[in-house]
């Protein structure tokens, strides 16, 4: 994920709407109207329609047969399925990339981890989510498989939106602790143990999410 300025109006609208959906500003089931969005965002209808089409591909907006659009509704089933898919993709990329990591990579991962924690402390979920995702991105890109990273980015965005995790959510702690322990293992050259610990993050996260969705 990046903080760079989007190159087009469509990309800017995509980023804005995605952020509003991820943070819950546009709740599940919200009716999405082209003209209203265009007026609010100060753009023409065309980039709004293109953005809606993109977010539909990402699974954030549902387009009905009658062409009405709504922010995708949440179910326990699709939340857990997304976590399962994210786990398979991210863990594969992590395992493929871990042997290619250098000291520079580890320094970047430590920096992203600090930004992740600081973002949560400041209540900035979007910044924290981006930094947390970048922690894994560094390893996945080290595998050389950019197509895999593109798929991981899509699933991460959808998962964050579905869970709408606030900065104070207990769910973040699973990632904070897991990242710290993964880093410690990598810094000691224990790559395979780091891969195993990384995989365990997803197992623990899924259990916590399932309990939260069930209200336990």
From TrEMBL:
It comes from the Bacteria. CDD domains: WHTH_GntR. The keyword Membrane does not apply. It holds the Pfam family FCD. Residues 7-74 form the HTH gntR-type domain. Keywords: DNA-binding, Transcription, Transcription regulation. SUPFAM superfamilies: GntR ligand-binding domain-like, Winged helix' DNA-binding domain. GO terms for molecular function: DNA binding; DNA-binding transcription factor activity. This is GntR family transcriptional regulator. It comes from Couchioplanes caeruleus subsp. caeruleus. The lineage of its organism: Bacteria, Bacillati, Actinomycetota, Actinomycetes, Micromonosporales.
């Amino acid at each position: 994920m990046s903080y760079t300025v989007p190159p087009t109006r469509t990309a800017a609208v995509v980023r804005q709407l995605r952020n509003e959906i991820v943070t819950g500003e546009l709740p599940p089931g919200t009716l999405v109207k082209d003209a209203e969005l265009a007026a609010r965002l100060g753009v023409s209808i065309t980039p709004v329609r293109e953005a809606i089409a993109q977010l539909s591909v990402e699974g954030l907006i549902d387009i009905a047969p009658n062409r009405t659009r709504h922010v995708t509704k949440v179910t326990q089933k699709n939340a857990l399925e997304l976590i399962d898919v994210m786990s398979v993709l991210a863990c594969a990329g992590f395992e493929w990339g871990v042997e290619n990591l250098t000291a520079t990579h580890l320094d970047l991962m430590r920096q992203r981890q600090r930004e992740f924690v600081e973002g949560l402390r400041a209540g900035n979920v979007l910044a924290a989510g981006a930094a947390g995702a970048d922690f894994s991105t560094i390893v996945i890109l080290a595998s050389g498989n950019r197509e895999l990273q593109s798929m991981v980015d899509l699933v991460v965005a959808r998962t964050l939106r579905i869970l709408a995790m606030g900065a104070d959510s207990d769910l973040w702690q699973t990632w904070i602790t897991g990242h710290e322990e993964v880093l410690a293992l990598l810094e000691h050259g224990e790559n395979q143990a780091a891969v195993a610990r990384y995989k365990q993050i997803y197992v623990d996260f899924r259990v916590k999410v399932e309990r939260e969705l069930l209200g336990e």
